[in-house]
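As a warm-up, study this chain.
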Amino acid sequence: MSDRTVSVLLLASRFGMPYRVLRCTQAAGTRVHVLGTIAAAGLRRSRFCTDFALTSLPVDGTYNEALATAINQATQEFGIDVVIAGDAPATRSLITIQSLLRARIFPMPELPDFDVLNNKWAFTQLCQLMHVRSPQTWLLANKTELESFLRANDDGRSFIAKPLSQDSSKGVIRINGHTFGRAATLINYVPILLQEFVEGIDIGASVFCNHGRIEAFIAHHYNRGRYTPISEASIAADLHALLGPLKTNGIFNFDMRQTGNGQIYYLECNPRVFWKISMSMLAGVNFVAQGLSALGLMAPPRQSSAPNDVLFPKALVLQAATAPWQLSASSTQALRFLYADPMPYFSETLGFERDPID
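Now compare it with the structure written out below.
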């Protein structure tokens, strides 16, 4: 490690998730340059974006030698030390062309592991193999098969229909035999993954893996603008069972449901950066800093032994209205985070930044 500031190139195909990665990357003490598509152009409004280079090349998860050339050109122009992907298509693109790149690459899984973990059907099969609890799941070819399944199982149960690999809950629909007609108009993908609906609350967990070893971990519940870290030893054990045998690298995020009696069902894995990555950082775990440390580019980051709740504006207002005596200096850290870079925040809040639907 040297005293020189690390320069990072962020590859982005959209705005929302890459913006949150940009903030975590800058908070690690780096200079962040962006190579992005037109859908990511809003990132140039961030005061933490050192340079923005627009590319007309597709960043869509496919192998593209021209994209590798563009990354190498940006590497030379900006003096880049490491390249990081800011979203799912960018991650797969970077994995496929990493052997062509001159700069170092942020730790990521190998392509076969990425494709298994990123595919919701393959992930549920992995959970079954590793004896990790997941909902009963079916893979249906089209809406005709879905309708036939629902008619044959019209016993009051609800199900969740979802695409195999889209992110940010795109295309996820709760459905049963009585609501098929309305829900079917919203399903514009094939095949259709169908999971038995699990009563409970949504929770999540994120890790950084170094050759299968979990080196950073946080689990959380998010509701009404409040990000609440949770302590549940079984989650870390489950994630070790899933990721350890793969000897894999990188950031991984998991969506789960926790029932009233505490049972946890694993729904899907995102083998990449994730939407709440800046919330995790504010709670005490910066996953980007952890990856840069694994590359030897900076000292290991300090991780909070007791991650704190993070209150975004809605939760802060509710707290101030109902229990103002519980407010503390840490209660406003998310507000300070948002207003430290106001242009992207207001642009996104007002709807000027809309990510493409895959």
